[in-house]
Amino acid sequence: MPKEKSLKVPRTHQAKVKEKTLRWFLIDADGKTLGRLSSEIAKILRGKHRPDFTPNADTGDAVVVINCEKIVVSGNKEAQKVYRHYTGYMSGLREITYQTMMEKHPDRIMSHAVKGMLPKTKLGRAQFKRLRVLAGSEHKMQAQQPITVNV
Questions:
Q1: Neighbours of 26 (CB within 10 A)
Q2: Domain spanning 22-73+106-149: which CATH class is it, in words?
Q3: Which residues partner with 65 through β-bridges?
């Protein structure tokens, strides 16, 4: 019986932590829609924009978001959107409206939206730590030489 020739099958690349090079991206949120911008930020944090993306490895990059107080929401969300959290005590469901949140903590609006788009695992928590959201246009990340991204 003749011996069959074996075919070489290309192997799937598995990214390793040692191979990863962390890049920093700077995104200006001025006039951008909250959900659309948040999904792009989540893609960068997860690393889906990179050719070596591996779902079970932390291959993402870091993101700095500035001017988040100038973010826009579509529809009637500005009047109707409510953020809820539970304190852990009886009758401890607290509600805060979008307008109040924008006045007090505009950076938390963007953080909350991005966090909801990341995996709810240890990997997702590690990816979320690489997000910096700032209300003003000033940031202290010049040493990381962030790449300005127009999303």
A1: 19
A2: alpha beta
A3: 27, 133
